Amino acid sequence: MKIIKYIGILVLSITVLSCNDKAKQYEDIKYNDYLLSKVDSLESKIDDLIKNVEVGRDSITIRNAFIKSRLAYKEIEWAVSYFLPHTSKAINGPALDQLDLDENKFIPAEGFQVVEEYLYPSFASSQEKDLLLDSKRLKNFAHTMRKNFEVITISDALVLEALKMEVFQITALGITGFDTPASKLQFVEATASLQGVKNVLTLSKKWGDKESVQQLTVLLDKAIEICKQNPSKTTFDYLEFITTYLDPVSKGIVELQKELGIPFNDGNQVVKGSVASLFDENAVNLNAFLPDSTYYLTPAKVALGKELFFDNKLSKDGARSCADCHHSDKAYSDGLKTALDLKGKPLQRNTPSLNYAAYYHGQFWDMRSVTLESQSSDVITNKDEMHGDLKEIVEHLNKTNHYKKKFETVYKSDKDIEVWQLENALASFIRSLSVFNSRFDQYMRGDKMAMNEQEKRGFNLFVGKAQCATCHFMPLFNGTVPPYFTNSEQEVLGVPADKGGKMLDADLGRFVYNTDLAQLKHSFKTPTVRNIGESGPYMHNGVYETLEEVMDFYNKGGGLGLGLKVDSQTLPEDKLELTTQEIADIVTFMKALSDQSKK
């Protein structure tokens, strides 16, 4: 109830800020000057927060000061996220220590979400010293913004792209509550983020009087008004909000850029400038995940890789092919609790689906391989899986006239086939197993008959009450964080050894390869829930046979909720309090993420 008391104050503050912005006349907009004025506002509000903590003001006053500083940041989030990604990640990242594999250490969390956790759900005066220190760190981040915004070059093209990416960020992270896990003020903050987008769109005389901008303003005003009402996250119609407001705004920004004749930034970035919707079939550029053009996807590579995928000559004594453990009708998993070794004995882990495997920064459940190329060779040479020898396999391919000619054509070389080419061909086929053609995708692209009412309810629960979308991010529905997709998350869930839930599974996950980083114990990659209906059993150990069982585990709060001792669990242990019907709705929605056969 305390939060509700703040809402009127916050909405009033946002309105006043907006009116002040309108009162200013920006004849010839200079983005650097505009952003520096916003940094002034941010620093002022952070100073107020610091002062309130220093003099020991009451928790409500301190919370209000925190929220005002956070809203000031959200107004320029579009620019910080786009132009200063490292600063954005530090000041607005999760309140979890960040893994730095290059330095083989965890970097202590800092930023707004750390401060938020001091203040919500309650504030203990014993934490004042830490709160003050972390509040002062916010001031340092603002100083970094200032120094950068004083010198960087900001063009119209970059601004429009940054605004579009901010709309994507609001869609995938903002309204889901990813940024506000403790305060639950995602809609209040979305108000400021959307206002920030509107402010910039209406500042420039170059396009301010265009009808398309006026239409965008109407959409943004309506979206802002909805968020100002601070609706309940458990009952909010996310699907309607995204399809009626957010998606049309991002499309409108791209159309505006076309209308103005401003070239798009369509280099090899993860989301190209001309991409108008987060839910476009080609919204995420697959080649941007690869080191250079040598590895880029081509139809010829895919065809060659598919042939190799089904060839048992890649294993010792021709015992099995890749396809023997990755079945197309099971989303390229195998349907078994755990994989089987060459002698038919169970291995430790469940066979993961290969669908959408391309969209991770880390392969296998423990993320030990950085690329699909290294993943392919790891499986081939693993003594329990295929026990092949890459040197011998390449010698065999070079002696096979059929393959020799195909590799020469695909890689445009008359030299002997090399190991990297074998790896790349296999990886290319796996990369092709991402088609973004589920009924959900069809719905988001305009076919409003593609999903039924239960599936729509399930989506809203998935994003809202069940909090699934705070780990399985749209549109990939895996752990690769949008909208810039530069890192993939691992989670510690506390998965039990069996359905009884009395003992934590012994698999240490990613920790096995980083034994001095205790926080990685029992951590595993967050897989996609696309094609989840075909890829069971579930979890790294295949402990759950059905999606209903998986949802029951999450509903209880993971391992901690089951009463297990789980160090560093990243999944909140609070019970979700989902009803049987709500779980059924979520499961039904997840099955709507299964790809449909293309006609």
What count of helical segments does DSSP give?
21
Largest sheet: 2 strands, antiparallel
Cα distance spanning the termini: 53 Å
* Series of secondary-structure elements, N-terminal to C-terminal: HHHHHEEHHHHHHHHHHHHHEEHHH
Binned strand content:
under 5%
The SS-based structural class is: mainly alpha
Mean pLDDT: 93
**Whole-number radius of gyration?**
25 Å
Q: Low-confidence runs (pLDDT<50, min 5 residues)?
A: 1-27
Q: How many β-strands, per DSSP? A: 4
| Spatial strand arrangement across the major sheet | 1-2
Envelope shape: globular
**Helix content range of the residues, please?**
40-55%
Oligomeric category = single chain
What does this structure look like?
It is a single chain. The protein is mainly alpha-helical and 599 residues long. Helix content is 47%, strand content 2%. It has 21 helices and four strands. It has a two-stranded antiparallel sheet with strand order 1-2. It has a two-stranded antiparallel sheet with strand order 3-4. Helix 2 packs antiparallel against helix 7 and helix 6 packs antiparallel against helix 7.
